[in-house]
Amino acid sequence: MSKQKDLIPTEHDLQVWKYAQEELFNYLYKGIAGWFQILGHRQIGRWAKLFSDQFVLEVGCGQGHHLIHGRNTYQKYLGLEIRFDFIEKFKKGDSNGIAINGNAFHLPFADQSIDCILSIYMFEHIKDLEINLLEIHRVLKPEGWLLIGLPAEGGFMYKLGRNLTSKPYMEKKFEFNYDAIVKYEHVNDYPQIFKEVKKLFPKTRKIFLPFPFLPSYHLNAVVCLRARKS
Question: Could you give the domains of the chain?
Answer without folding.
Answer: 3-228 (3.40.50.150)
